[in-house]
Design goal:
14 helices, single chain, Adenine-n6-DNA-methyltransferase TaqI, Chain A, domain 2, elongated, 16 strands, 429 residues
Length: 429
């Protein structure tokens, strides 16, 4: 089956495409991407576009500046028609070739062609069915403003240049109402996560008293710190036994009576949530005795899901860790929750990113982690900061959980809606 997906800007076509790709293993063909590829030097549309609109639309490297092209081509309807006349035929030819390539490999694959201009590009004849993704105009305006930074007036103008709701409906057999805003809910979740990290960063580097004198930390990614704080130049200096990672290889099958092993998928941002936990024999665990947990250690993901960091609860004493997780056992002058929050802050992210820039290594090595500098207030102040962040982050996490639940419900609704159309259980509108 070949399915056509169309709709105006801001309608949320990408969310529907994501469901089709994930749930139905659909092979996606995005007409806009095909069009951009064909505008590259040496491709089918490049010379004709340059000849039609002039060399003024070129960058210094002789590639087409799409913003300049758009400003010219969409300045009036005739210019738009001229651009479409150049691009659409070759886009269709390339899409036909892509369909054949997919069919040669997977004859029964669901192929989805997404294009705002399905009919104008003469792509509808290629499709067995065509869906129109509908979203009310106010929601579309809001989405465009948030995603592209456009003014409201520009959003209205952009929508006005596109086909009307009636025109889209006339071309399509199925209409899917996408006004339920999964994207907005997810955006709110991301904003809450960003706020949480900003709060953590502010407090672990500036403390709780905004009136105290400040001084330069000596590290750009940390910035100023309270004048009475110290800077520990290496994280390893405040540990009792250095930093180490765990079992190099988890052997199959699991030992049902063995030692539980925490992996990077278990260590999340601020807490540990074992999921499908692995085990090893006690003999294997003892070979890595240095990483057997006692409770209270700070765990950091050094491979896989970078960003995961949490304090080991007492009830996980006796567990071990996998190669992708590092164990930090702090001395008595450090609060484990304060250090955890520091490793969740933007400071540590910037430190990690700057030192991994240009590296092909996708993980965080122990040496880099051990060498990380960190602000070091007195222990009582560390605990006060950690207590404050425990409370505030718990509140934020509660809000995030509510938003995530809403998002999941909307996803389930949309998936079931699409399923009913794909399987023919819902009548066509």
């Amino acid at each position: 089956m070949i399915l056509g997906i169309t709709g105006g800007v801001g309608a949320g076509k990408s969310s529907v495409l994501a469901i089709l790709e994930k749930e139905y293993n659909a092979k996606l063909i995005l007409a806009d991407e095909v069009g951009r590829e064909l505008m590259q030097p040496g491709e089918a549309n490049y010379v004709n576009i340059v000849n039609a609109f002039g060399k003024e639309i070129l960058n210094e490297d002789q590639t087409i500046d799409t913003k300049k092209l758009a400003a010219t081509a969409f300045s009036n309807p005739l210019e738009t028609l001229r651009l479409n006349a150049i691009t659409h035929p070759n886009v269709r030819v390339r899409i036909e070739w892509m369909i054949k390539e997919i069919r040669d490999k997977e004859p029964d694959a669901l192929i989805v062609i997404e294009a705002a201009l399905l009919s104008e590009g003469h792509l509808i004849p290629l499709c067995d069915d065509v869906w129109y993704i509908y979203t009310d105009e106010q929601t579309r305006i809001k989405r465009i403003m948030e995603s592209r930074g456009y003014s409201k007036e520009r959003c209205i103008q952009t929508i006005a240049r596109q086909k009307s709701d009636a025109q889209f409906r006339a071309e399509c057999r199925v209409v899917i109402d996408n006004s339920h805003s999964i994207e907005e809910t997810k955006a709110q979740i991301e904003k809450l996560k960003a706020y949480k990290q900003s709060l953590i960063t502010e407090v672990v580097t500036k403390g709780l008293d905004p009136t105290v004198p400040m001084k330069d930390s000596g590290f750009e990614w940390i910035g100023e710190i309270p004048a009475h704080w110290e800077i520990t130049r290496k994280l390893a200096f405040v540990t009792t036994e250095g930093i180490s990672y765990g079992i190099v290889k988890l052997f199959d099958p699991d030992d049902v009576n063995g030692v539980k092993v925490l992996r990077c998928s278990d260590v999340l941002e601020g807490f540990i949530k074992p999921d499908n936990i692995r085990t090893v024999t006690r003999e294997v665990s003892n070979e890595y005795a240095r990483t057997i947990l006692a409770g209270g250690e700070v765990l950091v993901n050094v491979r896989g899901s970078l960003g995961g960091c949490a304090v080991v609860p007492e009830e996980m004493a006796g567990y071990n860790i996998a190669r992708e997780v590092a164990k930090i056992t702090l001395n008595s002058r450090m609060c484990n929750r304060y250090v955890m929050y520091y490793l969740l802050s933007r400071c540590f992210v910037e430190y990690r990113t700057s030192h991994l820039s240009g590296s092909v290594y996708v993980g965080l090595n122990i040496e880099l982690l051990s060498s990380c500098p960190l602000p070091n207030p007195e222990l009582t102040e560390q605990k006060a900061i950690a207590d404050y962040l425990d409370k505030k982050c718990s509140q934020i996490d509660h809000l995030i959980a509510i938003k995530q639940a809403k998002s999941e419900k909307l996803e389930q609704y949309k998936q079931s809606f699409i399923y009913e159309y794909v399987t023919g259980k819902r009548e066509v509108m």
